């Protein structure tokens, strides 16, 4: 255990003040024992996997940060076909790579996403038309209210668009995750137009999982969405805002406001979604006038120069700088189009200024 250590070392934004203590758990048993002991002692606990979806305040966390480092990957099969099971702290992309190397498909569209495997159900991680919930077989949880361990079916996790019952709730620890796989190295059906075009296949067709992984990684690197310590565009929490879903009662008004601003000859990206129509947060941010690299080259926190949806630390930013920028972007989109953007990462000891 170390004391009063800055949490910036544990987040991909490289932001966050000190925790009272930091404990790294190298296996599942120590994770269970540590969290149980801290809970009994009434000590606040902050679980951290890869720290890639966390915005931690400059004053830090008044409790113990538990770093999930349990690793291990096992392949198996049952009547429904092959699957892979991993300890929560296993690096997600190493898990995806291991499945592709072992000749299985399924997870390839989720290549290059930072963080730990066990955290992926927390916000139902998704990219390029696939969400982990599509492949999830089960999750082993520690119930912090009872101290019990149990395997839970995906249908009990409340998985939705970048959310689940686990997100922002301090009730459970993911210990182990298990994913169904496709045999014969076949990818999931390609549901994302840009990816299908790059692969030269029709939407809905499958391809070689290895090829899909390579193409996805290439697309992600181009957008600054694969971690690279040398590239400040990747000192981020990925997409900072979720794509807003506009209810049927408001969508005509919102489209009219967008058309007013951008003209009616511009195609507005819009997709049917649960509860209405999903718009693209990145597109709205750009059309509201926020350019890549906004506000300027001197600002310590800026929009990525590759993708307007990523808010980045250029090296000496504070969390205060970051949330001020986020509020600026949120307000600009609201003023332009009447659309409220909501942050995707989990905020700890900080919030967006109103
Ligand atoms: C460059 C970049 C690109 C990204 N691209 C994508 C993308 O394409 N799609 C996408 O969906 N996300 C993306 N993200 C966001 C992020 O990578 C994912 O949400 C990832 O699953 C977070 O994992 P983590 O281990 O880093 O979580 P952390 O940031 O460590 O934690 C996130 C939350 O989960 C909690 N938590 C951590 N471990 C556990 C556990 N074992 N049990 C219960 N709760 C836990 C934490 O307390 C916190 O509330 C991206 C982020 C970055 C920086």
TrEMBL record:
Catalytic center residues: 162, 239 (proton donor), 344
Primary enzyme class: oxidoreductase
Keyword flag Oxidoreductase: yes
One GO cellular component term: cytosol
Main location (coarse class): cytoplasm
NCBIfam families linked: murB, PRK13903.1
Pfam families: FAD_binding_4 (PF01565), MurB_C (PF02873)
Keyword terms of this UniProt record: Cell cycle, Cell division, Cell shape, Cell wall biogenesis/degradation, Cytoplasm, FAD, Flavoprotein, NADP, Oxidoreductase, Peptidoglycan synthesis
Role of this protein: Cell wall formation.
Record protein name field: UDP-N-acetylenolpyruvoylglucosamine reductase
Entry's family note: Belongs to the MurB family.
Reaction equations catalysed: UDP-N-acetyl-alpha-D-muramate + NADP(+) = UDP-N-acetyl-3-O-(1-carboxyvinyl)-alpha-D-glucosamine + NADPH + H(+)
Span of domain FAD-binding PCMH-type: 15-222
Compartments where located: Cytoplasm
Cofactor(s) listed: FAD
Protein's gene: murB
GO-annotated molecular function: FAD binding; UDP-N-acetylmuramate dehydrogenase activity
Pathway(s) per entry: Cell wall biogenesis; peptidoglycan biosynthesis
EC number, UniProt record: 1.3.1.98
GO biological process, one term: regulation of cell shape
């Amino acid at each position: 255990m170390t004391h009063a250590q800055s949490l910036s070392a544990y987040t991909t934004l490289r932001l966050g003040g000190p925790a009272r203590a930091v404990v790294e758990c190298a296996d599942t048993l120590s994770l269970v024992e540590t969290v149980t002991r801290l809970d009994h002692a009434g000590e606040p606990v902050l679980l951290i996997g890869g720290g890639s979806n966390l915005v931690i305040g400059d004053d830090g966390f008044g409790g113990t940060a538990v770093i999930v480092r349990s690793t291990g990957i096992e392949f198996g099969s049952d009547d429904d076909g092959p699957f892979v099971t991993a300890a929560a702290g296993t690096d997600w992309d190493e898990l995806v790579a291991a499945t592709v190397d072992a000749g299985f498909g399924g997870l390839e569209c989720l290549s290059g996403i930072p963080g730990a495997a066990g955290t992926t159900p927390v916000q139902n991680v998704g990219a390029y038309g696939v969400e982990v919930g599509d492949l999830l077989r089960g999750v082993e949880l520690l119930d912090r209210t009872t101290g019990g361990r149990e395997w839970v079916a995906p249908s009990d996790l409340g998985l939705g668009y970048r959310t689940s019952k686990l997100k922002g709730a301090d009730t459970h620890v993911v210990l182990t995750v298990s994913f169904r796989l496709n045999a014969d190295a076949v990818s999931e059906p390609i549901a994302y137009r840009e990816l299908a075009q790059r692969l030269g296949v029709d939407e809905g067709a499958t391809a070689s999982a290895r090829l899909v992984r390579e193409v996805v990684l290439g697309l992600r690197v181009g957008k600054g969405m694969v971690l690279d310590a040398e590239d400040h565009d990747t000192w981020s929490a990925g997409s900072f805002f979720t794509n807003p879903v506009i209810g049927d009662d408001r969508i005509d008004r919102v489209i009219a406001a967008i058309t007013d601003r951008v003209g009616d000859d511009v195609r507005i990206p819009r997709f049917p979604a649960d509860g209405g129509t999903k718009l693209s947060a990145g597109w709205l941010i750009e059309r509201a006038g926020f350019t890549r690299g906004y506000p300027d080259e001197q600002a310590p926190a800026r929009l990525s120069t590759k993708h307007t949806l990523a808010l980045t630390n250029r090296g000496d930013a504070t969390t205060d700088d970051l949330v001020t920028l986020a509020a600026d972007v949120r307000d600009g989109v609201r003023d332009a189009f009447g659309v409220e953007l909501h942050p995707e990462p989990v905020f700890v000891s900080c919030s967006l200024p109103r």
